[in-house]
Design goal:
The chain is α+β, with helices and mostly antiparallel strands and 169 residues long. It contains 3 helices and 8 strands, in the order ααβββαβββββ. The chain has one domain: TBP-like. Strand 4 (114-119) and strand 5 form a beta hairpin.
Length: 169
C-alpha cells in the first residue's frame, strides 16, 4: 500500500509539473482522437514491458480501461497501467535499470522524450519518459516484491463535443 501511495503522489506531481508543457497550448496539435491516444499509450506500455527479458516474466496484465485527466480547460489525456509480474527472486531494481537503458532505442524516432530517474518515497528506483510537447508520459518501477508497474499518460487531445470525461475509457 505504501508503494501505491508513492505512485499516486508521483502521478500528481507529474500531472502538475509536466502535463502538456513546452509550447503554448494554442500551438499544439490536438487532432488525435481519444481512442487513438489510448491505443498508442497501451502499445508503448507493452513495448516498455517488452524490454524485460522474457525468461524473467511470469505474466503481463494490461488494464483494458483507464481514466481521463485534464491537460487544460479543453483537452484531456488518457491514463492507464500495466503490471508485469517477474519470476520469484528477480532483482527488480536491476531489471528496471535494464529497461531504462532500452528506452533510448524505443523512443529513438521521437527525440522529444526526456528520460529521467529518481528514487520514490519508498526508495524504489523509478524511471520516467516524458514528452514536453505532447504531454505523453510513462513511469515505471517496482510495485511490490515481484511486480513492476508501468503507468502511462497519452498525448493531449480534445474530446468530441458532448462527451463526458468521467468514468472509464
Amino acid at each position: 500500500m505504501k508503494k501505491a501511495l508513492g505512485i499516486a503522489i508521483t502521478v500528481v506531481i507529474l500531472l502538475v509539473t509536466s502535463g502538456c508543457v513546452g509550447q503554448p497550448m494554442e500551438n499544439r496539435t490536438t487532432a488525435v482522437e481519444w481512442q487513438d491516444a489510448k491505443a498508442t499509450a497501451q502499445t508503448v506500455e507493452l513495448e516498455i514491458a517488452g524490454l524485460i527479458p522474457a525468461d524473467e516474466v511470469v505474466s503481463i496484465d494490461q488494464h483494458e480501461t483507464g481514466s481521463l485527466f485534464s491537460c487544460d480547460e479543453k483537452r484531456h489525456r488518457w491514463t492507464g497501467i500495466t503490471y508485469v509480474t517477474l519470476v520469484p527472486g528477480a532483482k527488480i531494481e536491476a531489471v528496471v535499470k535494464q529497461m531504462e537503458k532500452g528506452l533510448g532505442a524505443l523512443f529513438s524516432e521521437d527525440g522529444d522524450f526526456k528520460i529521467s530517474n529518481y528514487r520514490d518515497m519508498s526508495d524504489e528506483y523509478t524511471v520516467t519518459a516524458e514528452s514536453p510537447t505532447t504531454g505523453e508520459s510513462y513511469l515505471f518501477g517496482q510495485d511490490d516484491s515481484v511486480t513492476i508497474s508501468i503507468d502511462s499518460w497519452s498525448q493531449c487531445f480534445t474530446l468530441p463535443e458532448g462527451t463526458y470525461p468521467g468514468g472509464s475509457f
